[in-house]
Amino acid sequence: MAKKVLIIGAVALGPKAAARCRRLDSNIEILMIDQGNFISYGGCGMPFYLSGEVDNVHALRQTSAHVNRDPDFFNDVKNVEVRIHTKALSIQKEDKTVSVENLDTGEKYDIAYDELVLGTGSSPIIPQIPGINLQNVCAISCLEEAMSIRENCAKSKLENVVIIGGGFTGMEVAVALADMWSLKCTLIKRSPRLLPSLISETISEMVRHDLGSLGIDVISEEEVLELRGENGEVKEVITSKRTLKAEQVIFAMGVKPNSEIAQKAGLDCNPRGGIRVNEYLQSSHPHIYAGGDCVVMKNIISGKEQHLPMGSLANRHGRIIGTNVAGGNPVCGMETFNGVVGSWCMKLAKGSASGTGLTVDEAKKAGFDAMSVNVEQLDRAHFYPEKDMMTLEVTVDKKTRRVLGMQGYCANGDALKARIDTVAAMLQFSKPTLNDLSNVEVAYSPPLASAMDVINTAANVADNVLSGVHNAISPAQFVELWEQRENNNYIFVDSRPAKASQILAEKYPDYWYSMPLEGFDKVISKLPQGKNIAFICNSGTRAYECQRKLKRTGRDSVNSAGGMQAMKKRGQEF
Amino acid sequence: MAKKVLIIGAVALGPKAAARCRRLDSNIEILMIDQGNFISYGGCGMPFYLSGEVDNVHALRQTSAHVNRDPDFFNDVKNVEVRIHTKALSIQKEDKTVSVENLDTGEKYDIAYDELVLGTGSSPIIPQIPGINLQNVCAISCLEEAMSIRENCAKSKLENVVIIGGGFTGMEVAVALADMWSLKCTLIKRSPRLLPSLISETISEMVRHDLGSLGIDVISEEEVLELRGENGEVKEVITSKRTLKAEQVIFAMGVKPNSEIAQKAGLDCNPRGGIRVNEYLQSSHPHIYAGGDCVVMKNIISGKEQHLPMGSLANRHGRIIGTNVAGGNPVCGMETFNGVVGSWCMKLAKGSASGTGLTVDEAKKAGFDAMSVNVEQLDRAHFYPEKDMMTLEVTVDKKTRRVLGMQGYCANGDALKARIDTVAAMLQFSKPTLNDLSNVEVAYSPPLASAMDVINTAANVADNVLSGVHNAISPAQFVELWEQRENNNYIFVDSRPAKASQILAEKYPDYWYSMPLEGFDKVISKLPQGKNIAFICNSGTRAYECQRKLKRTGRDSVNSAGGMQAMKKRGQEF
After folding, report:
1. Which of A537, A556, A567, B176 can pair with B50 through a Cys bridge, CB separation 3.0 to 4.6 Å?
2. Last residue of a domain, one of A205, A224, A253
């Protein structure tokens, strides 16, 4: 009798596992069930459908040859049976059966399996506040919701949109609606800043300023208490501090793994949700596999369990599970997956943000004695005409100089991704030190990189800081010194060429000194004694050189990492 | 008495080492000598000066704040003494002196050092054929030569340019002159194809076709015998097979390390040139450091010595040497460098090419039982509007499944670089297997990557080939089968949707079968028995699925890796 593989969930992991399994074995009976209507779609593409970049919602569920990936497609082309509108109710792991319900008819029945695959995904977190059942209130967790929002846009029903939560989807949706439909978008979040677990304050402020270029307001540290409507449609969002108009409310507070069915069946789960799996992606029961959004994975750097709801992870897991339920790779046997480092990227309004590994805050939480430093450098040779200033921030363990993560922001998302992915690979397969990052051999040619590339520079700056030859402060720390200038006895020394630095020196003659690197040696004695000194230049490098020169005279100073370029990206004016 | 550091060579490594050393130690006496006129310039930027992308040649020797990096700059700003027009004649390593000649006055004198740095760079390889002293014959090894060529362009003196040699610079210069100045460029080379040690035949053909889009002819396997001129100016290039018009001839046959002075001093060198250095970048004499173009480095993958003349390597080496001659990093001591993997990239006419590690040919030479396979996949989500088809070719050791290298071609150079650099990092810091490459956690979002990204797909396709479930052939092998179709009993089965595949089926009714993946199961029995079958589709994936279906009926077949997309990129028409 043929082996029976049952797959619960048919969005990302399920279809991948099914197709892979079938390509390896033509005899296995593969059945995939899903409670929804649409299957095998690119959920992460929904913001780009709202923006109009993706014209037709069905493009998200089509192959690259524009064939709909519907149950017939899976049946006819992939030889995989699919039952939609079919909800899994419980798993009887000793009997190897799953009880399901046909949501159209209410009929309940059991399905027997030899190998079970859980690709149950995740669900949006929605707080149970008054008004959540009003019309035009939704998450963006399925195609129907995206379609409904776009329909409201197209019918000109919307002027104000409030997005509750500030994760990837929330920001992507805000950008889409503000850019394409010129809607007033407001993002409300509980945490003090955007993406607090993924980026530092420095890059977070750049992201906020980026969103601001489309008029998107970000309201932090506020709780939404209630939604109010008229005639059943939402009209207002009430927070702890204000009332906002909103004809559309979108919850984007993140997602939680759909692991209840696994938990009920007695499979080992994280107490906060998420199925635990071994390196073969087997749950605590060897004939039940799980992957994608419904599992927790070990973070390779922190050693902690992490929920990483990404379509990419689901696809990679899907292939491994497809192989393993088919009996393993024909040559090497069971395939393995060894954990995650937490790589991500997102396109914003003017630029993209990306990161991998730990931020300095997350590193500290994981027990590292960590520091981070941000750099600004062009993404290619400075003499090449098309170029963008890239921000990179590297997280390092102070004692061992081990690199723990890198995040960045740049107008050119592909160029940024090149640097982040390089670090991701280092983090995933080694324990890189600053020396490794300083020497990582990325491809070089002036139209695509610098001879001393920004990825290497980030390591070099961190090395200088840890070696005590560069006393860098973050952009926020510089701004704070500047704002407290009447009380803190600081003067601000601008190492940029005279043309750039003199403007502020004339505006603030008591505080701002124009002292270009060229000629700094000659004027160094003119720096008033008894004053604290904060350097700044365009990107940080000229001021670092001046700091070294000043240090030779015995004086300490601080230097604003990333210089004016970092200030500009956060919208700081002087 | 202050320590004396003498640096020979002031183009890339020298200035970097000098500036780094100075920042770490303000007391060391640093003297840098160079026989040329210009110092501290981005030599790799010269092709982009010829193309007009870089407007002013001096941009190549300026800081990003447009300050000329001339001897005065180094003296005044960096506190580094520079003597140009000063040629090093010999090293007396026991005496710690270098004999030099002032090329302006002919004066010879000795310079004493405590630590010597050799940044002598490399020189172009120029065959000693008749006519090489004619005017308008040069390499592009210094700014003066680039200036002379651009002057000839600007004065409309040129119509035909012959470039001898097919390395990076030769191709970049051909693109620059053909694109910006509409010159007829011909590239002549001895080897059978472009970049034979860096890319396979598959990507080599794509590069050739890319150059062809600007009318650049590539002539292979021909030797240049003589240059002929009129009134002292070059007019013709005579090869073993033809005579070509040429008012400008450029040698781009590669470079050789300038290691003669080291060899004469008894330092350990590779017999074919290149100073040998240890992990601290010390030569066989501990007080003589060397790096950049004048050294050979161990290739981490092959274990063999490699000459890697790259501005990026020179910069990384420069920082390490600058640190080490200053006595080491203040905290961690001597810095180290552990070898190279050979990463590179270049912008061509319509796209960019890039690679890292070994090609299949180089891997075989290094003793691996290697194979490679090429894939075509979009560089981001297929539903995202802006996207480019990316070619990647992965080299793998068959037995261990160790990944040995990756090369690629794509219109979006940044996106290509993201994938190549990721593999470079894996190769440099681990011994990745196909399983690792299949799972490498690159950042994902639809505007920047695919959920199953092309980098993972490359591993998966190679895995399928090695596991015997995918019988792929290279584009060239498919073309050969097609061209031999009257004799080899092959039929060609096109799995693309009917609209695409029927055109060729109608054109070649006896050979080309339109059998879209959808519905293939139903027509599989119509495939004539007794025929050999070669599949093709758009990118290789649909045909792979059909190949699996056919295999279930007991029939073998081959599938054209990369499909029609690979064909298009090599200019193959049917």
Report:
1. B176
2. A253
